[in-house]
Specification:
By secondary structure, the protein is an alpha/beta fold. The chain is built from 9 helices and 9 strands. Strand 2, helix 5 and strand 3 form a beta-alpha-beta unit.
Length: 284
């Protein structure tokens, strides 16, 4: 789906010819919520963005209700800095936007250059810094963090969340694509746990001691969120990054010391993707 990239003359006059050329290229996110013309996106990209952008924006607004005035923030990205710029428009004093997955297929230097140009057009250049680097070399402290599409592009997502717990004093907003399998939906998990709990409680006279213990062990595994099919690293068909379920994302965040206060998972196209879950968390 092609969307207009034409800038009004009062904005285009701020840009050099080479910046206008970058602006007219393919975009990953749609920057129109910031008051800028939407960029060119594929139909699949656009469907993903419509699903997740509203959730992330809402989490940012909710996070700011918990923050002091003029908070300093960090955005970890694998594409562009839309959400860091959004935070800057909502009152952040400064946001460091860091591409921590420069080697992943989703990463394109053009996206960060488009972010720089967007910051220029919005008069936010003094409020944001853009860079690429190793997430484990970032030093804080920060008042909040927005991590979008990074964890599943890195080999040790749990360690990243632990690192963020050390350098972020306030809320953490996470969005990731998560792994979905037909029999491993949240509903299936709930039904299976309920079945096991009933059998353990009411079938003590029918089942042997070993059968009861087997059911207790299976129930414990389901509750942990850490069974093998709920965490794939790396994905079977890729040589980079990690793949995990929504529940495993929550488990990783909790294990790293975060408290999840809001969560959402939705299924997004294309339906033949295994990692078609769109998961967002607000943590404190």
């Amino acid at each position: 789906m092609s969307m207009t990239t034409e800038l009004p003359s009062k904005l285009s006059g701020k840009l050099a010819p080479e910046e206008l050329a970058v602006w007219s290229g393919r975009w990953y996110h749609n920057f129109s919520p910031l008051g800028l013309p939407a960029g060119k996106q594929t139909e699949v990209q656009l469907q993903h963005q419509l699903e997740k952008q509203g959730d992330i924006f809402r989490h940012v607004r909710d996070a700011f209700l918990r923050l002091k005035k003029d908070p300093k923030g960090l955005q970890l990205t694998s594409t562009d800095g839309l959400f860091g710029l959004y935070a800057a428009t909502k009152g952040a004093s400064h946001v460091d936007i860091v591409n921590v997955t420069p080697g992943s297929p989703a990463s394109d230097r053009r996206f960060m250059e488009q972010t720089r140009i967007a910051a220029k057009l919005l008069d936010l250049e003094k409020k944001v810094d853009l860079s690429s680097g190793d997430v484990f070399k970032i030093s804080g402290p920060y008042d909040f963090c927005i991590s979008t599409g990074c964890l599943y592009n890195l080999p040790e997502p749990g360690l990243v969340l632990t690192k963020l717990r050390d350098i972020v004093n306030g809320p953490l907003i996470i969005h990731e694509h998560t792994w979905l399998l037909p029999s491993y939906t949240r509903r299936f998990r709930e039904v299976r746990m309920g079945q096991l709990e009933r059998e353990i409680r009411f079938m003590k006279d029918t089942l042997s001691r070993s059968e009861i213990e087997e059911r207790k062990a299976e129930l414990k595994e389901w509750k942990s969120g850490k069974d093998d099919l709920h965490f794939q690293s790396p994905a079977e068909y890729r040589e980079w990054g990690s793949r995990f379920s929504h529940d495993s994302l929550i488990v990783m965040a909790v294990d790293a010391g975060w408290t999840v206060i809001n969560e959402k998972v939705a299924e997004v196209p294309p339906l033949n993707w295994l990692d078609r879950g769109s998961s967002s968390l607000l943590c404190i």
